[in-house]
Amino acid sequence: MAGNITNTTAPITNCLSKLQSINGLFAIYKKKGPTSADVLNTLKETLLKEAGVKNPNPRKRKKQSLKMGHGGTLDSAACGVLVVGVGNGTKMLSTMLAGSKKYTAVGELGKATDTLDATGSVVLEKDFDHITRSDFEEKLKTFTGDIMQVPPLYSALKKDGQRLSVMLLKGQKVEAKPARPVTVYNLTLQEFKPPLFTLDIECGGGFYVRSLVDDLGKALSSCAHVKELTRTKQGQFTLEEHALPEEKWTLEHILETLMPCPEAETGGKKAQKAKPKETKALGAKPEEKKTPEADT
Question: Any catalytic annotation for residue 75?
């Protein structure tokens, strides 16, 4: 781990230089509302202001030479752990985040929405009085292990270079993507107070919590959608131990929690070959992902 800043009275130029010299990963807390990209821009703007940059524009990456990206997008309605790569740390994102992810999801029975979460419009209502806790827990077993899952229509997946969610908002016709294999390591019903229920989920990459909840509702001869979603773990980073709240988005706190790049990743051919699939470097054109973000 990197140490604390030792010279808090350093000139502004030194602060900016120190900020630009950071290479590694750290985690922040993403609140509900803004997109993951918006949160990253806010983080970058906050750090540049602290470093003395006047009127920083976080989207102009080349001018300020601060390379930063995030791995694993969270929907705007979701909150929790968002892992950030800075400097050469952006090249580590896909490798370091290859492990499992954990979520706590609050679902609501009896209502289905077009987005599969609370931000959408209700498209179906069905009775749920017949569902017992025992029924629910029994169905969860069929969604554990290696399963097939159809991603939501409202997602970051693309067709002809456009996000499906954007196409839908434009009124364009969108066909569902085919089912794909995903892995659920653990799935537990924590609370059952119909119509609400709370799930703890540990899954691999490409998994959509919204699709799980929608599928569960159908399997129980009813319908359901995600009401609240929190990511509690991503790779080695957990919500309790690592995610910096917004009031701690400072150079000092980042240096205290930073996971630095291995020496081999800070330069040379090995670093050049590392091309993360989930990195969204600010100011760069987003790449189409072969594996969807687990969200959401």
Answer: yes
Tokens standing for residue 261:
């790049």
Measure the CA–CA gap between 166 and 162, rounded to whole angstroms: 7
C-beta of residue 64 within 8 angstroms of C-beta of residue 79 = no
Burial of 172 (0-12, 13-18, 19+ CB in 10 A): exposed
Q: How many CA atoms lie within 13 A of 28 on its CB side?
A: 29
Whole-angstrom Cα distance, residue 126 to residue 222?
5
Tokens 């002809």 belong to 160
Q: Please give the distance of CA 250 from its chain centroid, rounded to a whole number.
A: 21
Contact between residue 239 and residue 103 where contact means Cβ atoms under 8 Å apart: no
Contact assessment for residue 140 and residue 192, using Cβ atoms and an 8 Å cutoff:
no
From the list 213, 245, 240, 215, the residue with the least C-alpha distance to 229 is 213
Query: pLDDT per position in the chain (296 positions), as tens?
Result: 444 444 444 444 578 889 999 999 999 999 999 999 999 999 999 999 999 888 887 766 555 578 999 998 898 999 999 999 999 999 999 888 888 999 999 999 999 999 999 999 999 999 999 999 999 999 999 999 999 999 887 655 445 555 555 555 555 566 666 799 999 999 999 999 999 999 999 999 889 999 999 999 999 999 999 999 999 999 999 999 999 999 999 999 999 999 998 864 444 444 444 443 343 333 333 333 333 344 56
Residue 152: is the preceding peptide bond cis (ω within 30°)? no
Sign of CA dihedral 63, 89, 78, 254: negative
Choosing from 75, 117, 215, 295, which is the catalytic residue? 75
Sequential DSSP letters for 222-257: S-EEEEEEEEEEETTEETTTT-B-GGG-SHHHHHHH
